[in-house]
Design a protein that fits this description.
Strand order of the largest sheet: 3-2-1-4-5-6-7
Strand content: 5-15%
Helix content: 40-55%
CATH class: Alpha Beta
Oligomer: single chain
Number of helices: 10
Largest sheet: 7 strands, parallel
Distance between the termini: 30 Å
Shape: globular
Radius of gyration: 18 Å
CATH topology: Rossmann fold
Length: about 290
């Protein structure tokens, strides 16, 4: 198997499980050294009742041909994030090629039994939802990017990916969620503008419906939508393809869609499937 990212160093935030884990695995397949951050270090101790640990993800990265390094980090704490970047600086001689901002907050109500997309409107949602999505999500992305950028600027290359979602462009997926994801998209565009003279790219990346542990726990809710779903590793393969593309600067500042990148770069999902783009699926009258 080709490993175009052999020698490259990546940081994936929030990678104990879900999309973050899939991104780490996709980068591992491509041969990268992947620093895996998250809060869960022992099964059963996660903030939500789902499996997965940072060590488990790191071990799988190594098994796939990369090198996984687990680092416990709560990205709501700027100093913990700073410590991760400084560790990478020290251990990798200042090299950081890829930062994937995936960590997020505000999903607890999908798993704690209190709600599952049943609220009548934003006025019925707790204000803490907004705070969690913007502190553990948007702000955490900004801080990790600001601390990582100097390493990339010093080398004259690098890629920052904000994992986002089409909720940023839709009106029916929650006010807090849509606003937070739109902020991530706008952040990537503005960062791209400032980083372009330094040869560093920044993009926003949309998966479709991803078969994460949380989605599969509620598989009956998604029903037929799962027919056009994606594995978490599919998103990782999209990130790996971008990181290996010598022309990635041409995409800097853009909102990209994993399934569309699959067609462009020629990769498939782990089962050989070629999912439809989330925009195509939505235009066809069905959810992604």
């Amino acid at each position: 198997m080709s490993r175009p990212l052999t020698g490259a160093v990546a940081l994936v935030t929030g990678a104990s499980r879900g999309v973050g884990k899939g991104v780490a695995l996709g980068l591992g397949e491509a041969g990268a050294t992947v620093y895996v951050t998250g809060r869960t270090v022992a099964e059963g101790e996660a903030a939500i009742p789902l499996p997965g640990t940072i060590d488990g993800t790191a071990d799988e990265v190594t098994r796939l041909g990369g090198r996984g390094i687990a680092v416990r980090c709560d990205h709501r704490d700027d100093e913990q994030t700073r410590a991760v970047i400084e560790r990478i600086r020290a251990e990798q001689h200042g090299r950081l090629d890829v930062l994937v901002n995936n960590v997020w907050g505000g999903y607890e109500h999908f798993h704690d039994g209190t709600e599952f997309w049943t609220e009548a409107g934003f006025w019925a949602a707790p204000f803490s939802r907004w705070d969690k999505m913007f502190s553990a999500g948007v702000r955490a992305h900004y801080v990790a990017s600001a601390l990582s950028a100097p390493l990339m600027i010093a080398r004259g290359s690098g890629l920052i990916v904000n994992i986002s979602f089409i909720a940023a462009e839709k009106d029916d997926m929650g006010v807090a969620y849509g606003a937070a994801k739109a902020a991530c998209d706008r952040m990537a565009r503005a960062m791209a503008h400032e980083l372009r003279p330094h040869g560093v790219a920044a993009v926003s990346l949309y998966p479709g419906l991803v078969r994460t542990e949380g989605v599969m726990k509620h598989a009956s809710f998604f029903g037929e939508q799962l027919k056009n779903s994606e594995s978490p590793t599919f998103i990782g393969r999209a990130v790996a393809a971008l990181a290996a593309d010598p022309g990635v600067m041409q995409k800097s500042g853009a909102v990209l869609i994993a399934a569309e990148l699959a067609r462009e770069y020629g990769f498939t999902d782990v089962d050989g499937a070629q999912p439809r783009s989330i925009r195509e699926a939505d235009a066809g009258g069905s959810a992604p």
